[in-house]
Design goal:
Radius of gyration: 25 Å
CATH topology of the largest domain: Rossmann fold
Strand content: 15-25%
Strand order of the largest sheet: 13-12-14-15-23-22-21-18-19
Shape: globular
Bound molecules: glutamine
Structural class: alpha/beta
CATH superfamily of the largest domain: P-loop containing nucleotide triphosphate hydrolases
Distance between the termini: 23 Å
Helix content: 25-40%
Number of domains: 2
């Protein structure tokens, strides 16, 4: 059967949760075992997200294949439990660079190269290529930005043209505000958004309403009337406390059966095992038996989206352990004044996540020292591992002035140093150590081995600096454990403390955690935080919590 398409557009403003809507729509089809995959269009002229500041744009997500992509892809993977590829991220930058290359080669000889038809044709060609090679039954295409933006106009036009040839369903994500002064939900913005969409030649098949309170019947009927839709096709997102509730809320409104019927998909029964597993995890997320407090100490704290994968990985591990995780976001600069005691009091676990540059580094090191000395479970992710090594070098090995050449190129002890092969690289885009790397775990009595339960693992990477092997013996002689390296033994991947739960990894395990297949290291960390809080080892982990990632 040929691939069918669902195109998700946003109107009025950004930040309405198109990524969540797309992920939830994919999930409800995945519950029936339809093969469903995403494509995301981003209108910006960057080639990819790799050079963007996480403070402005949110987290940069990385795939196994080294692609640096929009953080919405993280959401897709977390919902679908599938590893995706960079081909499915189509940006303005990629399209324009390809079209100019083609023009220079002479592919358009004699023609003036135009947005329509050349760029729009190229978009359709990319999409059809994904359909042919990846063979999804349904391809869900999220168009970044809002209808009316100059940046995404050519994507929307391409989707209009696609709908002339293929089976395409359009979903508009919109906002229905409630004015407190009048106490009623206002539909006028959605009516205007609908007109803007009609001007682009697109009639939405579904209107998905973001609202602060459940959509009232009056508002639903009014939107249906003005958009010529059956009221059933006006769906609300339920304003739910956790993202993972949304697919079920959509199903309550029968979005699953309506889409299956409209797309004329092959008849399939819902996969009850998959649905029940999701529901059980959701129940444990909403009503956990226990609670622990975890501090995330970083420099991009004001925008939680910068650490979205870390945040969600904690939710996944928490659901597996029937434990709610209260995250305390700690601005690392605050800890530079030496008041770690005050900020970190009563915390059951500390994470230092990834990051770049010098700001706030000393505060993170203070947090790590606090964790080590007070035996608070610690997990360091990439930068968090590098700083764990620096803290250990300074305070245990007494290597004064230990640092990383990233923050202090003249440091006396460059415990973390630029990789040899990075020294000659000047271009910033796509040049880090990226994507999936195999890692060998050493010994069986380590935190790492106990988490993964196997010798060879693979995790995703994104960094330029590494543990400096010149200091390895000095550090291990003083008690640091090197529990994982690259398979050739050359690069350090995991380090640990001996006397309490403390682990740092050069990788980003948070990039592979899924709601139904939590990251092993996060499961162990949350387990340690529970032990710290309640003083007993957690035994009652859901049987499927450490299930192997399927793809
Ligand atoms: N800035 C560090 C490096 O480039 C760490 C990067 C990260 O945490 N992703 O090596």
């Amino acid at each position: 059967m040929p691939t069918k398409f669902i195109v998700i557009l946003g109107s009025l403003m950004s930040g309405l949760g198109k990524g969540i809507a797309s992920s939830s729509i994919m999930k409800i089809l995945d519950f029936y075992d339809y093969k469903v995959l995403p494509v995301k269009f981003d209108g910006y002229l960057n080639y990819d997200c790799g050079t963007m500041n996480p403070f402005r744009h949110g987290e940069v997500f990385v795939f196994d294949d080294k692609s640096e992509v929009d953080m919405d892809f993280g959401m897709y993977e977390r919902f679908l439990d599938k590893s995706l590829t960079g081909e499915n991220s189509i940006t303005g930058g990629k399209l324009f660079s390809k079209i100019i290359q083609k023009e220079r080669k002479g592919d358009f000889l004699g023609r003036d190269v135009q947005i329509i038809p050349h760029l729009t044709d190229m978009i359709i060609e990319n999409v059809m290529n994904i359909a042919e090679t990846q063979k999804p039954e349904v391809l869900v295409i999220e168009v970044g930005g809002t209808v009316g933006d100059i940046e995404n106009g050519y994507f929307i036009e391409a989707m209009r043209q696609l709908s002339l040839k293929e089976k395409v369903v359009f979903v508009d994500v919109t906002y229905v505000p409630k004015l407190s002064a009048v106490g009623e939900q206002k539909t006028k913005p959605t009516q205007l958004a609908y007109r803007a969409m009609m001007q682009s030649g697109i009639h939405p098949d579904y209107i998905l309403c973001r609202c602060e309170e459940p959509l009232e019947d009056e508002a639903r009927n009014k939107i249906a009337l003005f958009t010529s839709l059956n009221p059933e096709r006006v769906i609300d997102d339920g304003t739910l406390s956790t993202l993972y509730s949304i697919p079920l809320h959509f199903m309550k409104q029968k979005l699953d059966t309506m889409l299956i019927e409209q797309l004329q998909l092959e008849n399939k029964n819902i996969n009850k095992g998959k649905l029940d597993d999701w529901k059980a995890r959701l129940e444990r997320t909403l009503n956990p038996a226990k609670r622990v407090r975890v501090a995330v100490v970083g420099k991009y704290i004001k925008l939680h989206d910068s650490y979205i994968s870390v945040k969600e990985s904690l939710v996944h591990a928490g659901a597996a352990h029937n434990t709610g995780i209260d995250i305390k976001w700690v601005e690392s600069e605050l800890l530079e004044k030496g008041d770690a005691n005050k900020e970190l009091e009563g915390i059951d676990g500390i994470i230092v996540p990834g990051g770049f540059g010098k700001r706030g580094i000393e505060g993170m090191i203070n947090a790590i020292q606090y964790a080590r000395e007070k035996h608070i479970p610690y997990m360091g992710l990439c930068l968090g591992m590098q700083l764990m090594a620096i803290e250990f070098a300074r305070n245990v090995c007494k290597l004064d002035g230990a640092s990383s050449s990233e923050f202090d190129p003249d440091a006396k002890h460059k415990v973390i140093d630029i990789m040899e092969e990075q020294k000659s690289i000047n271009e910033k885009g796509g040049t880090m150590r990226l994507g999936a790397w195999e890692c060998k775990l050493h010994g069986t009595d380590t935190i790492a081995y106990k988490a993964y339960k196997k010798e060879q693992i693979s995790e995703r990477h994104r960094h330029r600096y590494e543990f400096n092997n010149q200091y390895k013996d000095r550090m291990t002689d003083n008690g640091l454990i090197v529990s994982g390296t690259t398979t050739d033994g050359k690069l350090v991947e995991f380090i640990e403390w001996k006397n309490s739960f403390g682990i740092g990894t050069q990788a980003h395990p948070e990039l592979k955690s899924r709601f139904c297949a939590p990251a092993p290291l996060f499961l162990s960390f949350v387990d340690a935080a529970i032990t710290k809080h309640y003083g007993v080892m957690e035994e009652n982990i859901s049987t499927t919590s450490s299930k192997e990632r399927t793809q």
